[in-house]
Amino acid sequence: MEIAIVNDETLYLKNILQLQNKNINCGITTCVYTVNPSYGSGIITSYYFDGLLITIINARFKHDFLFTSNHNLSSLDLSVLIEGEKIIRSLDSKNDLILEKNESCLLYSNNEENKAFFYRDKPINEIKISMYDSFIQKHQMQDLLSNNKVFGLKKTENFTQQLTPNMEKVVNEILLNSQKGLLKRLFLESKTLELLHLQLAVRTEKASSSNENILKKIYKVEAILQTNLHEQISIQQLARKVLLNQNVLKNEFKKLFDETIFNYSKKLRMEKAKSLLAHTQKPIYEVADMVGYKNPTHFTAAFKKFEKVTPKEFRKNYSSLLKN
């Protein structure tokens, strides 16, 4: 049974979601729902096959909603929140689990009532993957549900973590994929396993770290680099911002991203520059400034070393490609 509670009123989920389309193709059941305009707006798409349920939510609700699910089935749930905020309430957990933008959460639900709270007027973009017993057994993942110190998920602790760049890449691939039938089924199964692997890899890294806060600080540095491409920030400045030793920062960053901070930052700048050159008509000196190069000549040299062509040649080649 799945219900929602709003303003002390209990509603069945079918009152809130309106089924627009349902089809079965190569064993994969696809359902597309729209949110009843009385309660909000948006689209919710679900895919189910072989004990795997993938739900993609892109919606906004007019009220605060507490969704309750009680289907008497055990499942390993991986939630990825791309936008918005979600509160997960579990009977086994002493505290609410708050999932925020660009965070993921891995939890084991053992035949219990699960509750998820969404705030009104906040956009929700989430991928929720529920892996049931048949899927878990098929891929021999029983160790995830054991008392294994690294992977055991029966403990009541916080399993939320920041999305890594690789996880974001997989999430985008899932959202943009338009395949159908067997190809869709194979794609979703492979991407589910890839996301689970990435989630557990970070979890293992955390378990082996002497200081769990280091990982969050490294991701904070990565976020600073992503959002400050127009500035050249030194390692000393980054270390000071996150209160981390410079050597620890450099070593842990390279271990996590397999790149030095300098190379990682440079790649971000060059990718941003390529996008600006391809999709805008901004002059080269302005593009240079937007990616942290105050001297256009230095930018041109760096860009050519990275792309093997100058910014002007890259823009010209891209324009020619579009015409063809």
UniProtKB/TrEMBL annotation:
GO terms for molecular function: DNA-binding transcription factor activity; sequence-specific DNA binding. The keyword DNA-binding applies. It comes from the Bacteria. The keyword GTP-binding does not apply. It holds the Pfam family HTH_18. InterPro entries: Homeodomain-like_sf, HTH_AraC, HTH_AraC-typ_CS, PchR_regulatory_protein, Tscrpt_reg_AraC-type_HTH. Keywords: DNA-binding, Transcription, Transcription regulation. Residues 219-317 form the HTH araC/xylS-type domain. This is AraC family transcriptional regulator. It comes from Tenacibaculum singaporense.
